[in-house]
Amino acid sequence: MSIQVQNVSKNFGSFQALSDISIDIESGELIALLGPSGSGKTTLLRILAGLEGLDEGAILFDGQNITNVSPKERKIGFVFQHYALFRHMTVFDNVAYGLKVRPRKERPSKEEIAKKVNDLLALVKLDNLADRYPSQLSGGQRQRVALARALAVEPKVLLLDEPFGALDAKVRKELRRWLRKLHNEFHVTSIFVTHDQEEALDVANRIIVMNNGKIEQIGTPDEVYENPKSPFVYDFLGNVNLFKGRLHNGKLTQGQFEIDVPTYLDSHEEAVGYVRPHDIHIEKVQSNNETVAATIVHIHLLGPVVQIELKRDDIDEYLEAEVTKEHFNELGIKKGDVVYIRPKQLRVFIPEDFSI
Ligand SMILES: Nc1ncnc2c1ncn2[C@@H]1O[C@H](COP(=O)(O)OP(=O)(O)OP(=O)(O)O)[C@@H](O)[C@H]1O
């Protein structure tokens, strides 16, 4: 089912939680709603579910305006952070619940329900635990039951609110795989809320980045990571180094450092160059003035990647570079060495970009 959010605004008293949000979601997408706490993610999800009203705008499912349709009639599956499983029911009964409570005319037969539940439990690899109660399961297993239960009723849309938020990092990773797998199997249009950028980049086919009740950017993980539209998105999606300087004649200047930025021909007294750690090139001998001297203050080995923390020699600022282990070995550098760093790729923002 496709979803259109058209110019939706929502106030709580005098506080504007969502302002003029518009989104087009195609049928079968797996969307991450990403943003800091309070940015409006849950409010938007609740509006989609019909659990919260809206002040302005409309919600369309498959082109039909469902703004005033009840939550029940929207045929939505829900998974929350705190697996709200029925404690007194077994795993099997939890998954079967939504089918068993259907009105008699729509209810599948007992055998059909059993087959469906067993298939779903096999899919989330819990078929051997069907008779257990929620208290006898780990957090990750409970969340898999919650996913199976949400899918049992064949929802047209699956909404997940920080579904893995309460779990530890390793289990979260495992559940991301489940979510992708289930999504590939069922193709249900799914939207999940997260404030974990890695989770969003890893799982979603598109990411909606929210800030202050507004959409900052919508795009594929690659687009939002490699081509952030605003300083906020740059900052929110990964580590970044800032080169604050002056923009003049296609050059960004800061202290001793000057770099050609031919695509930025305007002049501004204040501009900031954003550079990802993996776009910082390190050299031992200065090649030109597009480099700046810095002292290595910390080296952090992370398997195949090496993170290098540096302090600039000209101003009191720190930088972070990321190189492959192989390149690190070639460089032969150590803590305390003075090296020259050069941004390989730099994105310039001017003051008005900060006021989106
Ligand atoms: N029922 C309500 N009454 C008043 N204010 C509310 C209500 N629900 C949400 N808000 C406010 O609206 C803003 C957005 O809240 P929302 O829960 O949508 O944010 P979020 O992005 O999901 O945050 P988090 O990641 O912390 O869950 C917050 O400032 C919140 O305090």
UniProtKB/TrEMBL annotation:
<keyword id="KW-1003">Cell membrane</keyword>
<dbReference type="InterPro" id="IPR003593">
    <property type="entry name" value="AAA+_ATPase"/>
</dbReference>
<dbReference type="InterPro" id="IPR024765">
    <property type="entry name" value="TOBE-like"/>
</dbReference>
<protein>
    <submittedName>
        <fullName>Sulfate/molybdate ABC transporter ATP-binding protein</fullName>
    </submittedName>
</protein>
<dbReference type="InterPro" id="IPR041193">
    <property type="entry name" value="CysA_C"/>
</dbReference>
<dbReference type="InterPro" id="IPR017871">
    <property type="entry name" value="ABC_transporter-like_CS"/>
</dbReference>
<dbReference type="GO" id="GO:0016887">
    <property type="term" value="F:ATP hydrolysis activity"/>
</dbReference>
<dbReference type="Pfam" id="PF12857">
    <property type="entry name" value="TOBE_3"/>
</dbReference>
<feature type="domain" description="ABC transporter">
    <location>
        <begin position="3"/>
        <end position="237"/>
    </location>
</feature>
<keyword id="KW-0547">Nucleotide-binding</keyword>
<dbReference type="GO" id="GO:0015419">
    <property type="term" value="F:ABC-type sulfate transporter activity"/>
</dbReference>
<dbReference type="InterPro" id="IPR050093">
    <property type="entry name" value="ABC_SmlMolc_Importer"/>
</dbReference>
<dbReference type="Pfam" id="PF17850">
    <property type="entry name" value="CysA_C_terminal"/>
</dbReference>
<keyword id="KW-1278">Translocase</keyword>
<dbReference type="InterPro" id="IPR008995">
    <property type="entry name" value="Mo/tungstate-bd_C_term_dom"/>
</dbReference>
<dbReference type="GO" id="GO:0005524">
    <property type="term" value="F:ATP binding"/>
</dbReference>
<dbReference type="GO" id="GO:0043190">
    <property type="term" value="C:ATP-binding cassette (ABC) transporter complex"/>
</dbReference>
<dbReference type="InterPro" id="IPR027417">
    <property type="entry name" value="P-loop_NTPase"/>
</dbReference>
<dbReference type="Pfam" id="PF00005">
    <property type="entry name" value="ABC_tran"/>
</dbReference>
<dbReference type="InterPro" id="IPR005666">
    <property type="entry name" value="Sulph_transpt1"/>
</dbReference>
<dbReference type="InterPro" id="IPR003439">
    <property type="entry name" value="ABC_transporter-like_ATP-bd"/>
</dbReference>
<keyword id="KW-0472">Membrane</keyword>
<keyword id="KW-0764">Sulfate transport</keyword>
<keyword id="KW-0067">ATP-binding</keyword>
<keyword id="KW-0813">Transport</keyword>
